[in-house]
Specification:
Rossmann fold, 41% helix
Length: 614
């Protein structure tokens, strides 16, 4: 008798011998309801691919070799620029709308990536497409690959929906931290910002004519806003403003589409079979159209708000990146009412990462009159994005980055010797690339580190997984199962951000040129960096400085043995070697992390007040 599920659609499963499925739980349910265990399961899920002895699985992304992915990823930025340049020539298309179109095309590369895995037989032969769901959908948006949309015309394709029983969220939380621990890093400026923002929700606008509107926060935004408060500027948080979903704005993209369609078609021909090109074009047309209509709805909501605030006030917008649909609408409203837009750098990545240029279209500077950046390298790369609207202004890193520094007086006997801070965030159906490896390849590399290095050390090693704000796969990561199998490796199962845990460890190990690396460096404790040549490696210039300021290991021949030998040393020896790198590290920090030792918020507030609010 079939086992019932809320989304039951399981008749005739025994007739199918080929399916797309990324969930082990859903697959087992299908077997219990008649699917043959001989049916070929095509999947991207590392969990299923690690169980090749148990399941008849095939890596659906097997066509994506390192060389193919490199060609695909390194050509994305120039392609998106050509889309922008074509769109901006159309009458009535503003910089903001051209940027929105480019952003939609960038995001569609996730669909192109999946579409390239399909063959001609997938378009007409019987296929099962398994889609998973949960009760709340919290963190599960877009977890399913777009197979159903891509194979829409295959009349023999059967969609099976499954409601998951196990759906734990991996979202970050500070709930288990004390107020004192949170604000020791957040600082007095955060307390000031929160208090004044809350207070002025109930005070009429007439009490002050200088205001800073904060649509989205980050560390530097909060610190700058707090410094502006001390100058008499009132912060207004508009994060709670929501669009009316019933609005149905109509933005015709036909003139734009006629310009960009040939460019898109040429791109698709390089990676997708001919029979799927028209379907991909139709999907992209719909996605661009829907995105632009949502932006129009946001503008309808936001326009009266910004008009009213601008009538009698000196006003600026200060925000984390605005290159999202709501932010694009905010930027257009601000241009209309001549309201300056100031953005703040979100983190250290684009100035050090060799594969980050695919994200140029989402750079903070693309919608900002001024961008507050940490260092000169960030300024250079921001102003070279190819989509930039304004100029960058160097202010240094936020005080939060400084507060993670570990006190020298701390008793090391109570600290963990080594922590591996993983940056292994799978793409699934959500992430873009910045890597030339599939999720399966990344999982295998992570397991090799555990098997060949961490499990062999004479020290206890803590493993801190990278937290997912949105789930990539429904099943638990197989890497975590491997971590739990070794006695000397302890898994951090807490969902607390690593910055709150830095003071519990003596040596940090990490990989990938991301913001995670910058937080570890600013702790002051030894940092061992694994420079993975196919997964967000350092730029050549950054590599030169980081190899002197940190303990850097390239993942080339002899890598596993070399890093194992180094980490097997007594921790005291590693710490003494770290001290010898102090001068080189100071040069590295000044160039690639923070041009100034402190006062970033004050420096940013002085510029904003002088240039826009005086």
């Amino acid at each position: 008798m079939p086992i019932k599920n809320k989304f039951n659609n399981i008749s005739g499963l025994n007739k199918y011998n080929n399916l797309f499925c990324d969930s082990k739980e859903a697959l087992e349910w299908l077997y219990k309801n008649g699917l043959s265990r001989c049916a070929l399961v095509r999947t991207s899920s590392p969990t299923l691919l690690f169980d090749i002895d148990k399941y008849n699985v095939e890596h659906v992304e097997k066509r994506w070799t390192v060389d193919e992915l490199k060609t695909y990823q390194t050509s994305m930025n120039e392609f998106i620029k050509s889309i922008y340049q074509a769109a901006i020539t159309v009458d009535g298309i503003t910089h903001e709308i051209a940027l929105a179109i480019s952003l939609s095309v960038l995001n569609f590369h996730k669909t192109i990536y999946k579409a390239s895995c399909l063959t001609e037989s997938d378009l007409f032969e019987p296929r099962i497409i398994v889609q998973v769901h949960n009760n709340t959908n919290n963190g599960w948006n877009n977890i399913n690959s777009p197979w159903a949309s891509l194979l829409l015309k295959n009349k023999k394709a059967k969609i099976v929906n499954y409601e998951l029983k196990h759906d734990e969220s991996d979202a970050l939380s500070a709930q288990n931290l004390s107020w004192l621990k949170r604000y020791r890093i957040a600082g007095i400026e955060t307390i000031l910002f929160r208090a004044v923002t809350a207070l002025f929700k109930y005070i009429p606008d007439c009490f002050t004519n200088r205001k800073v509107i904060v649509p989205s926060e980050n560390e530097l935004v909060i610190e700058t806003a707090a410094s502006l408060i001390l100058k008499g500027v009132v912060p207004i948080n508009i994060d709670s403003l929501a669009v009316d979903k019933s609005l149905n704005e109509s933005f015709s993209i036909a003139p734009v589409w006629s310009k960009i369609q040939p460019i898109v078609n040429n791109r698709l021909q390089k990676f997708v079979i001919n029979e799927l090109i028209e379907r991909c074009e139709n999907m992209l047309f719909t996605e661009v159209s829907e995105a632009l209509n949502r932006i129009e709805s946001w503008k309808f909501k936001l326009d009266p708000y910004f008009k009213s605030k601008n009538d009698t006030n000196k006003i600026v917008v200060l925000s984390n990146t605005l290159v999202k649909e709501k932010g694009i609408a905010i930027a257009e409203c601000c241009r209309k009412y001549k309201i300056p837009v100031i953005s703040a750098q979100h983190g250290v990545t684009y100035e050090i990462c060799a594969t980050h240029d695919e994200m140029s279209v989402v750079h903070e500077i693309n919608l900002a009159d001024r961008l507050l950046v940490y260092n000169g390298e960030a300024k250079f790369y921001a102003e070279s994005s190819g989509f930039n609207y304004g100029k960058a202004y160097i202010v240094g890193m936020s005080s939060r980055h400084r507060r993670v520094q570990v006190e020298k007086s701390i008793n090391h006997n109570f600290l963990s010797p080594i922590v591996f801070v993983s940056t292994n965030l799978y793409k699934g159906n959500l992430g873009l690339l910045s890597t030339w490896e599939t999720d399966f390849d990344r999982a295998k590399k992570e397991c090799k580190l555990i098997d060949f290095v961490f499990s062999k050390l004479p020290h206890t090693v803590h493993y801190k997984p990278y937290p997912e704000e949105n789930r990539r796969y429904s099943d638990p990561d197989p890497v975590l199962k491997l971590v739990k199998s070794y006695n000397n490796i302890k898994l951090y199962d807490t969902k607390i951000d690593m910055r709150y845990l830095l003071k519990q460890h003596r040596v940090f190990v990490t990989t990938c040129a991301t913001s995670t690396l910058s937080w570890l460096i600013m702790s002051g404790n030894p940092v061992v960096f694994i420079n993975a040549k196919n997964n967000m490696p350092l730029m050549l210039d950054a590599h030169k400085y980081f190899s002197k300021g940190l303990f850097l290991f390239d993942d080339d021949d002899g890598f596993y043995e070399n890093i194992k030998k180094f980490l097997s040393q007594p921790i005291e020896i590693i710490e003494k070697q770290w001290e010898k790198k102090e001068k080189d590290r100071a040069l590295m920090i000044k160039r690639f992390l923070s041009s100034f030792p402190s006062e970033a918020g004050h420096r940013a507030a002085d510029m904003i007040y002088s240039d826009y609010l005086k």
